[in-house]
Every structure is written in structure tokens, then in C-alpha cells.
Amino acid sequence: MHRYEDRIERLRAVLSSAEGVLIGGGSGLSAAAGLTYSGPRFTENFADFIEKYGVEDMYSASFYPFRTPEELWAHWARHIHVNRYAPEATPLYRDILATVEAKPHFVITTNVESQFEKAGFLPERIFEVQGNYAYFQCAVACHDKRYYNESQIKEMLASTADCKVPSSLVPSCPVCGGPMDVNLRHNEYFVQDASWHESSARFGGFIEKIEGRALVCLELGVGFNTPGIIRYPFEKLVYRNDKATLVRLNRGDPRGFPENERRTIAFDEDMRTVIQDAARS
Questions:
Q1: What is the per-residue pLDDT across 27-81, written as a single tens digit (0 to 9) for each?
Q2: Same structural domain, 163 and 242
Q3: How many helices (H) and strands (E) does the chain have?
Q4: Residue 29 and residue 62 share a domain
Q5: Rounded CA separation 128/119 (Å)
Q6: How many domains does the chain have?
Q7: pLDDT grade, residue 21 (50/70/90)?
Q8: 137 and 58 together in one domain
Q9: In what order do the strands lie in the sheet with 245-249?
Q10: Do 123 and 203 belong to one domain?
Q11: Which end of the chain is more exposed for a tag (fewer CB within 10 A), N or C?
């Protein structure tokens, strides 16, 4: 890669001349913002679950085979609180908004903790493809509706004892009476309600409007877990539009496809530093 200072100058230049910015946010972005799923955030918030079940981090704990619904929802209440309701908008997400807010922009993200909206991005400019911690759904998707869960999560959290919630607080589907689930794309029953489809349509509209114009695809912390959602489509957009630039911030694999090398600016440096430096004139 070229010198950091040269890449930053080029990034400033393409952002200055951009007619639109498409932001792609992945798990690496939230990790860079401090919302890590391991380390002190995990051990300080889940000490009782670690002692009782031997879970090793928040991600793997979400797949732990809890024996009862009461244990399962005690875990989910803690997990959702720690990652969705407790955190304020992080400085990194606020800095991203400050960097792009003067330009037409849109966000597509696989993250599910609403940091973009908390930071001040307009909800109509955000497409949360993989769901949102703030909603429940029927576990077998018997109907396409999501249910905002903040009050239920807080009640579960306050009532948790010995890593269990009272049976009366275990949520059930108001339509079929079966179990509920968190609205996350982790199986074939993921609910895409009317608001999901509206966000998808707005995302498509932004892509159509910016076609053939000076576009910056700002890809932040997107790896290869689900590359077909952001990473590969961003490469395709840049390949088809000779006025587009791919800006990829990724610690592990920042380089783009060889076909897009001339129009890719890659960073493996600290994301917070890059965003702050890009905003400086």
C-alpha cells in the first residue's frame, strides 16, 4: 500500500468531490468503536454466566444450548441490554456521520445494535439487513411482524436470578402461542416485515440515483462472514461505475479485487484514526 499520508489525502479528495457516499458497516466497525464481544465487556457483564455455563464470549454464548427458556431469555436479556440499550452512540459512529453528513448518503449494515441511528443518521437512510436486537419475532415466523422489546428486556433484566428469568416473563407469540425469537438472521425464519422491505427499496433507490455518478463506497469493518451483502456488491458497484471509489477499512484484509485496484483506497490502520484524519481539512 502507499504511504498513509498519501492515502488520507486521496480519501479527502474523493469525499470532497463525491456526489454520494454509500456506507457499508460490518462487525469490525462496532468492534473498532469499542462494542467488543470478548474481553472486559464480556467478563464484567457475564460473570455469572461464565461461572455457570463456561461460555467464552458473547458471540458463542448466543448459540449456547440453554436447557430451559428461562435460562435462554436471561441470557438474551443481558446480551441485548449490553449491546443495544445500555451503550450511547459511540464517538466513532458520530465521527462517521460528521464525515459524510454534507453529502447524500445511505447506510447498509449487518450490525444489529442501532449505533448508526443513535449517532444521528436518519432512520430512512439506514438498511439493517440482518435485523435488530430491539425486536422480537415469532420463532417460526408464523406472521411477518416484529415487536419492540425494550420494556420486556428491562423487566427480564431486573428479574434475573441464578441466570434465569421468571417463567411469566418468557415471551410467546401472540398469534400462534409458540416461542418468540430475537429478530436476527440466524435461520430460515428471519422475519422481513414491511419496514424491512421499505428500507430495502430505499437502498435500491439510492443505488439507482447515484448510478454513473461520483460515488464513494465507504466500507467499514466488513469481513467474509457474509460477503455477499456488502463486500462483493460494493466491488461490483465500483467495477461498473468508473466514477466510483471503494474505500475499505479492514484490519485483516483491506485490499480490493485486482480489477478495482486503481479505484480502491485501502486502510488497515486504526479505524478511528483514519476517520478522524479524513475529516480534517
A1: 999 999 999 999 999 999 999 999 999 999 999 999 999 999 999 999 999 999 9
A2: no
A3: 12, 9
A4: no
A5: 15
A6: 2
A7: very high
A8: yes
A9: 126-128, 105-109, 20-25, 215-220, 245-249, 264-267
A10: yes
A11: C
Going from the C-alpha of 204 to that of each of 128, 173, 201, 211, the distances in angstroms are: 13, 32, 5, 11
| Pairwise CA distance, residues 39 & 34, whole Å | 11
What is the SS3 assignment for 281?
coil
The percent of residues above 70 in pLDDT, for the chain, comes to: 99
Handedness of CA 121, 124, 129, 130 (dihedral sign): positive
Residues 147 and 197 in one domain: no
- Cα-Cα-Cα-Cα dihedral sign, residues 243, 207, 185, 111: positive
Residues 202 and 248 in one domain: yes
Q: Is the pLDDT of residue 281 over 80?
A: no
* 156: containing domain: 36-86+133-184
Q: For 18-146, list the strands marked E by DSSP.
A: 20-25, 105-109, 126-128, 131-138
Nearest Cα to 53, choosing from 44, 63, 64?
Answer: 64
Same domain as 280, residue 154: no
Q: Tens digit of pLDDT for each residue in 134-192?
A: 999 999 999 999 999 999 999 999 999 999 999 999 999 999 999 999 999 999 999 99
φ and ψ of 137, to 5 deg = -150, 165
- 164: DSSP letter: B
Report the alpha-carbon distance of residue 162 to residue 235 in Å, rounded: 48
175, 76: one domain: yes
